[in-house]
Amino acid sequence: MHSTQATSQTTVSCIQVGLAERSYPIYIGRQLYQQLPDLLPNLPRQICIVTNATVAAHYLGAIRAQLPAEAQLLVHEIADGEHAKSLSTYGEVMDTLIHANFNRDCAILALGGGVVGDLAGLVAATYQRGVDFYQLPTTLLAQVDSSVGGKTAINHPGGKNLIGAFYQPKAVVISTDCLSTLEARDFACGLAEIVKYGIIYDGDFFTWLEDNHSQLAARDEQALAYAIRRSCEIKAEIVAQDEREQGLRALLNLGHTFGHAIEAEYYDSWRHGEAVAAGTVIAAHFMQQAGELHSTDVERIERLLSSFELPTLAPQLSETLWQQRMQRDKKVQAGRLRLVLPTRIGAAELRTVTDWPAVWAAICRVTESSQ
Ligand SMILES: NC(=O)c1ccc[n+]([C@@H]2O[C@H](COP(=O)([O-])OP(=O)(O)OC[C@H]3O[C@@H](n4cnc5c(N)ncnc54)[C@H](O)[C@@H]3O)[C@@H](O)[C@H]2O)c1
Ligand SMILES: O=C(O)C(=O)C[C@@H](O)[C@H](O)[C@H](O)COP(=O)(O)O
Ligand SMILES: [Zn+2]
């Protein structure tokens, strides 16, 4: 469900994530941090903002100024980067809450990208068995993907997102003006997840992305607002039908079985969106090899990702490492790999894949040469 409403200051789009008693709004607009009292009128007395120093320097002041004067406010800054999605950081946030005597009626606000949101969400899901959680996503990736749908997680040295919970926020507030301060590489990571929605679900959206790639790359306000809104609509529709990934939701994992393997080996040099881009190309080549995806579709996927300066080749990794990492994917059932595979632009399927040599051949076709 999508509606538009005018608050005291600007126009705000609202998409509803329909999950019965756990339904919640996604508000999208500009300068929304200046409108928090209108958008989040029911914040409790105790509020903990989880963020990092990079994001806090830009946006914490505006938010602080909008919170009720009588609120007991805690700010916990985690380190910047994927390494912070860890058990030790999780424990530190818990220590902060416990030492400040935060009660079960407190709220956790995640102010940041996917790292902050995933970690803060897990804290919210588990502190005193669950407290209210609000997402204030500040990266493009978090605005189009990670802040919506309730997947929360931290990493383990053995793999990505291995410890987590499904826990929905009470609301998501997307203030699109935040994106002006985002570095180019992080901006491109968000575009990778946007391209994913076109491939798995909406071929017309993919064509729109092709037609508007230069406006998007230039962060044109109107193009970006549409891409964010359409991405959130698609994610909300999928999550409303399959909250806990029993089937349909797995499509949101296009490219991730490969991507998570790359990330877990190269946290310092590969970002999530980049690894997903390379993983998506591997999935496309696998289907082309099988004669189930037309070469023009593979070329369109590669061209669109490249136009956003995303990688379309995977780094070198031994066959054993690929297998070990991919076996830890959460879609594995009874020891068998299940991959999300595009059948055309606009549709994908979750399939059990037992033909490892075919998977390995696709990986090899899409791997950077050693020269
Ligand atoms: N829960 C989900 O459904 C879901 C979906 C997709 C990705 N993820 C997870 O999200 C993470 C990746 O998220 P990400 O790409 O946002 O990375 P990130 O959270 O590391 O943010 C990227 C960088 O941008 C900085 N930053 C954030 N907002 C900024 C702003 N407005 N201006 C300037 N700098 C800013 C951050 O400090 C960081 O350095 C991964 O851990 C991935 O697994 C989760
Ligand atoms: O919301 C989902 O479902 C997704 O799969 C979205 C992905 O973009 C995201 O990276 C997610 O965290 C991956 O989940 P995982 O279950 O593979 O850890
Ligand atoms: Zn992802």
Automatic annotation (TrEMBL):
Occurrences of domain 3-dehydroquinate synthase N-terminal (ranges): 77-187
Residues covered by the 3-dehydroquinate synthase C-terminal domain: 190-332
Keyword tags: Amino-acid biosynthesis, Aromatic amino acid biosynthesis, Cobalt, Cytoplasm, Lyase, Metal-binding, NAD, Nucleotide-binding, Zinc
Top-level class of the enzyme under EC nomenclature: lyase
Pfam family of the protein (one): DHQS_C
InterPro entries: Dehydroquinate_synthase, DHQ_synth_AroB, DHQ_synth_fam, DHQS/DOIS_N, DHQS_C
The EC number(s) this enzyme carries: 4.2.3.4
GO MF assignments: 3-dehydroquinate synthase activity; metal ion binding; nucleotide binding
Any one Gene Ontology BP term: aromatic amino acid family biosynthetic process
Positions of NAD(+) binding: 80-85, 114-118, 138-139, 151, 160, 178-181
Gene Ontology cellular component annotations, sorted alphabetically: cytoplasm
Note on cofactor: Binds 1 divalent metal cation per subunit. Can use either Co(2+) or Zn(2+).
Pathway info: Metabolic intermediate biosynthesis; chorismate biosynthesis; chorismate from D-erythrose 4-phosphate and phosphoenolpyruvate: step 2/7
Listed CDD domains: DHQS
Highest taxon, organism lineage: Bacteria
Record's catalysed reaction(s): 7-phospho-2-dehydro-3-deoxy-D-arabino-heptonate = 3-dehydroquinate + phosphate
Primary site of residence: cytoplasm
Stated role: Catalyzes the conversion of 3-deoxy-D-arabino-heptulosonate 7-phosphate (DAHP) to dehydroquinate (DHQ).
Protein name: 3-dehydroquinate synthase
Lineage per the UniProt record: Bacteria, Pseudomonadati, Pseudomonadota, Gammaproteobacteria, Alteromonadales
